Amino acid sequence: MPVSTVSSLNPPRRLLFGPGPSQVAPQVYEAMGKSIVGHLDPFFFEVVEDIRRDLRTVFGTKNPFIHVISGTGSAGMETALSNFVEPGQKLAVLVSGYFSERIAEMGHRHGASVVRLDKPWGQNFSEAEVAAFLDKEKPHAVAFVHAETSTGVLQDPSAVTRPAKAVGAITIMDCVTSLGAIPINLDAHGVDVAFSCTQKGLSCPPGLSPVTVSPAAVEILRARKTACPIWYMDLKLLLEYYDGAHRYHHTAPISAFYALHQGLALVNEEGLEARFARHVKAAAEFVRRIEAANLKMFVPAGSRITHLNTVCVPEGADELKARKRLIAEHGIEIAGGFGPLAGKIFRIGLMGPLATEDNAALLVDALISCLHN
After folding, report:
1. 26-267 CATH choice from 3.30.530.20, 2.30.110.10, 3.30.200.20, 3.40.640.10
2. What is the per-residue pLDDT across 92-147, written as a single tens digit (0 to 9) for each?
3. Segment holding 138, helix H or strand E
4. Which of 104, 123, 267, 271 is the most exposed place for a label (fewest CB within 10 A)?
5. CA separation for the pair 298, 346 (Å, rounded)
């Protein structure tokens, strides 16, 4: 019997209303199907330069240093810590969720002296709290999460950067969930190092992690006394690949760069402010409908991530069963909580193409039907 040369792969069609990956636009899929070139081809570096230009706008920065790591958001986190925190240096981490816990764990593994300011999951940090902590600890670097995916809480960056600058510490900000869906404004907040991903607010497939570094932090990078312990994520080596002589470093995932290029083109076409406003409207409609159904939001108004909503599981409801029904009956994916919030919240994304008031209505109706029928 002849062997078929046609792939039998047939993934189910889903509406990705989870915390990531988010729905991918057809134009992005189309871009991924274009012919690849070599990773040292001049055309590839043209694509890279377009991406760097557009990422500056989305990050809200004029940093010359902005590059894309070949890896997911956790690779960006690892890159930031391994390049800017040397063994023995003090790293302060603001911990109130799963991904800030991950930062602290990575810091330990890189030999940093990690000190933590802990709050219960679902809370953010005031400037006064951060200032008192940093004044006591006097760290080399302060790391925090802008939009905590595990809880739905948004942190004011200036509440961290102002006290950090007062004690001479550099700041490392996790923008994995926020980039592309809400304002980042790195320069206005005075953030030194920031990293993100492609599969959430930018609505591209996972696989890349944008990283940007302020001029002052670049000088710190140049002055470090030891080599970055992770060769693959050594920003000094990556600069030799992406800038200047384009010296070979690794084989970049060309199709993923095409996807990001197209995803950013869609952001430009819509307009960044219009994109942010669309996400705000979708979130407002979602919250209105959730509260009209007598369900409760986990995070208080004013501290919520616009496009990543956390809803309390009502008493008597089975969170896992409801999510399984959403998949089976509606083709809708959302996520549950984990850590101390396991079984207590739903984590729901309204990002990218799905961030509309009509989709908010569709989602809430489907969720209610799976909770109560």
Report:
1. 3.40.640.10
2. 999 999 999 999 999 999 999 999 999 999 999 999 999 999 999 999 999 999 99
3. none
4. 271
5. 9
